[in-house]
Amino acid sequence: MDSFEWSLSKDDEYSVSDTRKHSDSIYLSVNGPATRCRILPRKVNDFVWQVALNRLPSRLTLSTRGLEIEFFGCVSCNGQVESMDHILFECSVALDLWLKVRVWCNIMIPEFHGWNEWLEWFDVGHTSTTSKDALFVIVVCLMWHLWQWRNDVMLNFKKMKKDYIFDSICLFLFNWLDSRSKCNVKLND
Ligand SMILES: [Zn+2]
What we know:
Helix content is 59%, strand content 0%. The protein is an all-alpha fold and 189 residues long. Helix 4 packs across helix 5, helix 5 runs antiparallel to helix 7 and helix 7 packs across helix 8. The longest helix has 28 residues. The site of zinc ion has 6 residues, from loops.
């Protein structure tokens, strides 16, 4: 009779942590150090990891992986090719929400056209370490919501209003920063 063995752990038992360590050892070692942020929940850290490796399953990414995609357009713009950078930085929904977050946080953040551009600006270190931590969490929270919004529209046919998305971003930020961080972050009420 055929059988399977789990070879990643000493006792041959499957475990999520062994799987995670194994995948980290494959992907993170060749693409840079692990950058898990202690303030973010694990699933959001995983999301950041996917973004950093340009592995979010946008329509463009799926097609480059060999899937047959009939329509490449963004669910919001209905015309622009749906790439990861489009969803997170260039789409009209993204532009509006980036603007709202800029105003709300009272932080001078330029417009970016993609993750690498944002990261280059971020790495230069325009702010103190504490503000830098907070800024990273804020931007990730924004991107996480943009991705959730896109999935909701595409998979659940729900189109949440931008104001509601922004309210949700604020709520998530307060929860994350309050429960996991000792950062003295000032956000406007
Ligand atoms: Zn769009």
